[in-house]
Inverse folding.
């Protein structure tokens, strides 16, 4: 077992322990388990909502997209802030209505507001059906991170099994509070490791960030603009538009616990004002993707998802690579936990309305 | 919703969504050392969006201060 794998396993266990420690006694009902009885302050709400943005897609997928297609990857830098601008107006209304009626999730909200249990059930079933692949994506992403870093196929299976057990465990034990506790660790770790990795990769391969794009302009100038093909202007605008509409109008059920868990509507709004600045971190994985264009041949990083870790493997010592792997694992485990909570919060909509506010459900006891 | 609120929201949304239609923005060239589309998206997506929300705070987009202060 390599030192990278050892650090990765210890990191996964540490993330799990943080999740278990997030619990504040037995949950008194679904509302406590899914939205912490709407008691989260500004800092926790910030990390919960930031945690929904920085997933394995940001870590691996966005770097791979920049490596494979170039500048179209910046669409993420557009839709993430725009969703906050729209949510700034929409989310307070969702929060207020949900507080007044005791809603704990999107299907619950739809069933109550439109007085249609059928609509709630449809939203819950659709949510389940389409969140399951997203959950699977996070877990397989976790395995891919470990496999790419260690070079061992077996390590992927082992890490996926450990990661899944830990996430299911701390979510059942602590609910949204467990996700919030791990979100702190995840974002701090991710920002620190992204900064270290970026410096290591830029210095090792190009001599600094300032030289990355100059060298791309010399060697692969087409990557700096939108070109005809699969990732053209139409792709860019429609991808951006769909993402803004979906995220901005809270169509994604997994964003609801982060909104409904806040202590007040003002906390949510103030949080959204700061979030776009935090989204600037997305420039880092995109820039690393451009380094991949310069440093990797087209077969080295497979479909592109391995770009970041392939570059990091040659630019960092094993133990530091292990910490990067832990940060990557955290971007899989924390959103997975949030997805599990969101999927669970759909259950009240499929039963009776009173279930949402009942204190006798016995969840997470 | 007030017209001023709508205007403040629409400007950055339109700029980010449709900026790529401007040939100078999508051109494969650098501006200040970065791809032009990246600079455009960061300016309108991050800087202008943040400013827009700060403006909304002043012109009435903010929820009531006492709107939910815990349970």
């Amino acid at each position: 077992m390599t030192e990278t794998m050892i650090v990765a396993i210890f990191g996964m266990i540490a993330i799990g322990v943080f999740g278990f420690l997030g619990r504040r006694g037995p949950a008194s009902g679904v509302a406590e388990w899914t939205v912490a009885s709407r008691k989260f302050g500004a800092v926790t709400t910030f990390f919960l909502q930031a945690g929904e943005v920085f997933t394995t897609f940001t870590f691996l997928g966005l770097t791979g997209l920049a490596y494979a297609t170039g500048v179209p990857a910046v669409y993420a830098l557009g839709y993430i802030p725009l969703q906050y601008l729209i949510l700034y107006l929409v989310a307070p209304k969702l929060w207020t209505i949900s507080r007044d009626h005791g809603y704990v999730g999107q299907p619950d909200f739809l069933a109550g507001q439109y007085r249609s249990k059928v609509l709630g059930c449809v939203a819950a079933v659709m949510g389940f059906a389409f969140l399951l692949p997203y959950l699977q994506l996070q877990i397989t992403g976790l395995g891919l991170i470990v496999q790419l870093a260690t070079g061992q196929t077996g390590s992927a299976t082992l890490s996926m099994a450990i990661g899944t057990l830990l996430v299911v465990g701390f979510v059942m034990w602590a609910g949204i509070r467990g996700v919030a506790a791990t979100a702190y660790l995840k974002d701090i770790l991710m920002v620190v490791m992204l900064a270290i990795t970026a410096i290591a990769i830029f210095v090792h391969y190009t001599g600094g960030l300032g030289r990355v794009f100059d060298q791309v302009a010399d060697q692969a100038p087409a990557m700096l603009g939108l070109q005809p093909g699969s990732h053209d202007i139409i792709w860019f605008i429609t991808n951006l538009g769909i993402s803004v509409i979906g995220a901005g109008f809270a169509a994604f059920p997994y964003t609801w616990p982060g909104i409904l868990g806040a202590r007040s509507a003002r906390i949510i709004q103030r949080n959204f004002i700061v979030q776009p600045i935090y989204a600037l971190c997305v420039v880092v994985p995109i820039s690393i993707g451009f380094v991949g264009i310069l440093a990797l041949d087209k077969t080295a990083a497979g479909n592109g998802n391995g770009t970041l870790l392939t570059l990091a493997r040659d630019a960092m010592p094993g133990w530091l690579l292990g910490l990067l792997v832990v940060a990557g694992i955290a971007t899989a485990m924390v959103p997975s936990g949030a997805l599990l909570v969101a999927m669970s919060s759909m259950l009240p909509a499929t039963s009776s309305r009173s279930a949402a506010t009942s204190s006798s459900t016995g969840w997470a006891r | 919703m007030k017209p001023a609120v709508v205007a403040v929201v629409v400007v950055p949304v339109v700029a980010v969504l449709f900026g790529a239609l401007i040939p100078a923005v999508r051109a494969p060239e650098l501006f200040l050392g970065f791809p032009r589309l990246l600079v455009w998206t960061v300016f309108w997506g991050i800087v202008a969006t943040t400013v827009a929300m700060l403006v909304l705070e002043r012109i009435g987009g903010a929820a009531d201060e006492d709107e939910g202060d815990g349970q």
In short: Chain A touches chain B through 52 residues (CB under 8 Å).
